[in-house]
């Protein structure tokens, strides 16, 4: 079992490395590969069970795009071959067409998915989020989390959604589709320790996507108690979910 973490020195703005700690405790025999900004990613030439990248600063986005741009054709091949990716927070904007701030383009993305990211330099929106994740034709599981962002993403890429929004905004304030699910590439605006907060999703990820059959998230019973309470509390009538 091999898990590659892209640019941990940059992509840990909201404690996203907690997701890797969760996987390491759940899969103690897994090899964790930390790829730094000047390193060539291992997944380009070798098989890994998961590629992970978390939230970064706006300046960090430019650095990451510059680092990955020479490999974008190979990354596209890996995605279409079905290599598993989990990308959280604004890291998924790296894979879009361009990033625009205050109506001025600040960066071209890798162009692997058809969407444009638009943000404001002065207004941040924070909100709780609950969405449905489809695990089969008949079954969905709820995923809870938090968003903290200066803008949104727009484009047809979100027809291949990761979550159906129950509470909060989707990829932008006008749609319910959140994130991208293409082959085994999964990306979401949710920030922080997503896997710790959502043991059912983590269990599915390990069992079905990473190939660790029958693996159970660490501290599963306690994590499930917290998860069930969180879902109930977030969806409680009258609960405020949006904070500017």
Task: Name the CATH superfamily assignment.
Answer: Class I glutamine amidotransferase (GATase) domain
What percent strand? Answer: 25-35%
Give the % helix: 25-40%
| Biggest β-sheet description | 6 strands, mixed
Mean pLDDT, nearest integer? 96
Supply the CATH architecture: 3-Layer(aba) Sandwich
Rg over alpha carbons: 17 Å
Shape call = globular
Give, in order, the helices and strands.
EHEEHHEEEEEEEEEEEHHHE
**Could you tell me how far the N terminus lies from the C terminus, measured between alpha carbons in angstroms?**
41 Å
The counted number of beta strands is: 15
Poorly predicted regions: none
Question: What can you see in these coordinates?
Answer:
Strands 2-1-3-4-14-13 form a six-stranded mixed beta sheet, with no helix packed on it. Helices cover 25% and strands 29% of the residues. By secondary structure, it is of the alpha/beta class. The chain is globular. The chain has one domain: Class I glutamine amidotransferase (GATase) domain (Rossmann fold). The mean pLDDT is 96.
